[in-house]
Amino acid sequence: MLEASGLTKQFSGPNGTVTALSDVSLRAEPGEFLAVQGPSGCGKTTLMMILGALLRPTAGEVRIDGEDPYRLSPEARSRFRAERIGFVFQEFYLVPYLSVLENIMAPSLARPHPNPKARAYELIDHFQLADRAAHVPAALSTGERQRVALARALFHDPKLLLADEPTGNLDAANAERVLSYLTAFAQSGGTVLMVTHHADAAGYAHRALEMASGTLAPTAAGS
Amino acid sequence: MNIWRMTFKEIVFRKSASLLALAAVAVAVAALVGSLMALDLHQRQSEQVLEAHEERVESLMAELGDEMRKASLKLSYNLLIVPQDQNLRDWYTEGYGKQYMPEEYVDRLASSNLMTVQHLLPTLQQRVEWPEQDGRTILLIGTRGYVSYPDQKAKKPLDLGHMVPQGTVVLGYQLQQLLSAKEGDTVRLLGRDFAVHRCHEERGSRDDITAWIALGEAQELLGRQGQINAILALKCMSCQGVGLHSVRGEVGRVLPDTQVVEMGSRVLARYESRARVGEEAKAALEQERQHHAAMHARREATAGVLSPVLILAAAVWLALSAFRDVRLRRGEYGILRAIGVRSGRVLTMFLAKAAVVGLAGGVLGYAAGVLVGVYFGRGAGSGAQVLLTPAEMLRPDWAALALTVALAVSILGAWIPAMLAARTDPAMILREGGR
């Protein structure tokens, strides 16, 4: 389902060129929960952006569902993301002036849904946010915010869910709850790729990879 | 969920920033509309003042014209017609002439139907010594009263005390004092008795030593039968100061061997004086018109600078506000782009907010501008009150201009920040944690 080969990403700056990723290859099948571990600044987020069709690699190829998004036009790539990829971030990125319901429905701005409100309420129920539907993010706990972000990511029922430190701002109980949702998504046939520097979080994945200085290798414990 | 709903919610969410942006647009539009309104009001006030002034001048001119007409009627020519060979220097020295012409001349002139010459008074005048009063020198005037034109006989004859019936005498003041005479007394003059017909009050002129008797009797006493030495043509008609020359010509054609002298006409002088007053009033009106036009031009120039400056200031303020907005909303744009919202929609979202703020600011600014314009327009006027009807206050062309300017200022101010937002790389924003 997700296949990346020879991914390299270099950034040019005033202090010269920095190599964030160097010849990274990976593969994840439908129903697989894959974790990428590593310290801050090792290139995890860059890898996730490239896999999420947001950041063109300097070299290498990405295939999601057999299609290389970087061969598409920017507009087509936007549609591609809307249809097939869900994102969850440590910072949640909820729209502050929209209610929980409206935040979950936000992906309908990118791709129309036949019944957006019903789908949003379905997710609200699934993530146990029914009593928070009309609240704005500022009125929610961090755990609730991350659940809203998860619900938004799943609005169009994507094939691939990319999670960047989804438990970074959560307490243990909420982290466990979010991870269990990710596990459930994978069990339902989706592919999850989570980048984290928490070994505990990575423990929920079927497989964990270790990233260091832009290169990827299986962890000692991961299998 | 749609872009407009998101726009309204965002405007409400960031109330302070939205209100400041709205106020900037409203102030710019209010300044523009207020300037237009004040200029329009000033123009109307000027027109009102000038119209009133013009009416006053017209009324003054009509009054002057009427006065002129009346004056022309009252101050008609007094003409003296004497024989052609009469030396006028002698006339002025002696007070009467020593050349004579036939009495028939006056009848000829009267029957000539000249419209401009009327009230003809034929006289025979001569200084004589009054033997019955110790040889005292007096002026004896024989007159037969005014001769009117044949077609004017029905009118009441002009009586200035010159009608002297046969056998009577009219005495000047000094002569009456000398004789202690009163009406009805008998006075002997040049060997003939005359009943005193009338005595004049003191006039301070040679009239005071004059005795008037009937023309025929004077001709007999002076040995000048059928002769006169002057015809006075009194109250000759004038046509607004023109025609003295033609009057002379007309008389000359009827009585070729006479000369016509004008006696103290004031018609022309008064006419010219009136005309001068009228011209000065018109000049003052023109000066005031130019003054109002100059004031209007100055105000237009001020408004022409002030409005663009305020509009530019509003655009700059909106641009700065939009840049701040872009910074605040980076995370929002990043996630929207990440979940597949196209950059064009992000641009639309941003500009939709600018359009809403612009339209609302335009409406508010237009209303405020109308009120400000009416307030200052009245205060700045020259005292004339101009009451505007609602239709005049709510002019559709100004409303359209206000909304167009408001939209243009908002969208232009937000354009560059919106483009930046739309083009921002979502990966960069999300990697930076939305900062």
Overall 3D form of chain B: rod-shaped
Oligomerization: heterodimer
Order of helices and strands of chain A: EEEHEHEHHHEHEHEE
The count of strands of chain A amounts to: 9
Low-confidence stretches of chain A: none
**What is the C-alpha radius of gyration of chain A, as a whole number of Å?**
17 Å
Shape of chain A: globular
> Within the largest sheet of chain A, what's the order of strands?
5-6-7-3-8-9
Query: How would you characterize the largest beta sheet of chain B?
Result: 9 strands, mixed
SSE-based structural type of chain A: alpha/beta
Question: What would you say this structure looks like, in words?
Answer:
The complex is a heterodimer of chains A (223) and B (435). With 223 residues, chain A is an alpha/beta fold. Chain A contains seven helices and nine strands. Chain B is built from 13 helices and eleven strands. Chain B is α+β, with helices and mostly antiparallel strands and 435 residues long. At the A-B interface, helix 1, helix 2 and strand 5 of A face helix 1, helix 9 and helix 13 of B.
Key terms:
heterodimer; A: 223 residues; alpha/beta; six-stranded mixed sheet; three-stranded antiparallel sheet; globular; B: 435 residues; alpha+beta; nine-stranded mixed sheet
List the helices and strands and how they pair.
The complex is a heterodimer of chains A (223) and B (435).
Chain A: E1 2-13, E2 16-28, E3 33-37, H1 44-51, E4 59-64, H2 74-84, E5 85-89, H3 100-105, H4 116-126, H5 142-153, E6 160-164, H6 172-187, E7 191-196, H7 199-202, E8 207-212, E9 215-218
Parallel strand pairs in A: 3-7, 3-8, 5-6, 6-7
Antiparallel strand pairs in A: 1-2, 1-4, 8-9
Helix pairs in contact in A: 5-6
Chain B: H1 3-13, H2 15-74, E1 77-83, H3 88-94, E2 101-102, H4 104-111, E3 120-130, E4 136-143, E5 168-171, H5 173-179, E6 186-189, E7 192-199, E8 210-214, H6 215-222, E9 227-228, E10 230-236, H7 244-254, E11 258-262, H8 267-328, H9 330-338, H10 343-379, H11 390-393, H12 396-423, H13 426-431
Parallel strand pairs in B: 4-8, 5-7
Antiparallel strand pairs in B: 1-10, 1-11, 2-9, 3-4, 3-10, 5-8, 6-7
